[in-house]
Amino acid sequence: MSGAIHPQSTIDPAEIARFSALAAEWWNPNGKFGVLHKFNPVRLAYIRDEAAKHFARDARSARPFAELRLLDIGCGGGLLSEPMARLGFEVVAADASEKNIKTASVHGHEQGLAIDYRVATAEGLAEAHERFDVILNMEVVEHVADLRLFLQSCGSMLKPDGLMFVATLNRTAKSFALAIVGAEYVLGWLPRGTHDWSKFVTPDELDGALAAAGLRAANTSGVIYNPLSGRWSLSSDTDVNYMVTATHAW
Length: 250
Fold this sequence. Notes:
This protein has helices spanning 13-20, 34-55, 81-86, 98-110, 122-127, 147-157, 173-186, 203-212, and strands spanning 69-73, 90-95, 116-119, 132-138, 158-169, 215-226, 231-235, 241-248. By secondary structure, it is an alpha/beta fold. Strands 3-2-1-4-5-8-6-7 form an eight-stranded mixed β-sheet. The longest helix has 22 residues, at 34-55. It starts with 12 loop residues before the first helix and ends with a strand.
């Protein structure tokens, strides 16, 4: 699948270059993506539980989502793609960075997982008429050049009874203090410049973009970090990190 940039594109070349330069770091839990490794358990539990409820599957079974097709768009090094494959999903994992896909493919192969890794964009996949039961947009929408085009492309690939997940950062004074100043400059959790606060997406903005794509938010949950336990957990507080499940609006 071609990753070529279309005349109307969701790709921000500066963002792709930034993450491509860090491609070798994806699977180092103590490296520059260490915060994502700590964040992964709460993301995985949320996806598993919401998908099990939506598709009436037993989340405790070995492969609860067998026969369901999943797209992990903006997959990076495959931190979510691999556990999704282990849960039984047929996984297509796409990223616009060839370096990210190479890193993800090598690691997935080493784990013996059958994941269809592709250098591709959301609009490119949509133009190829791909269809999925589940689409993951996790920590992606704050990095795209055109939020509405991105979600419209994803929405067009979602099957009628499909479920889409979006995880992102709210644009608030609190998120600037914690996600930019705290995480990047004080704690050094992420390389400086990883995020552009002006591109953070408020829940209302996300709802509007979802609606324009023919989708609606079915569930919204905040995610907070406890510095004492070193763990992330679901919360009613959406001031910084939050996750949404979306379905077709009809």
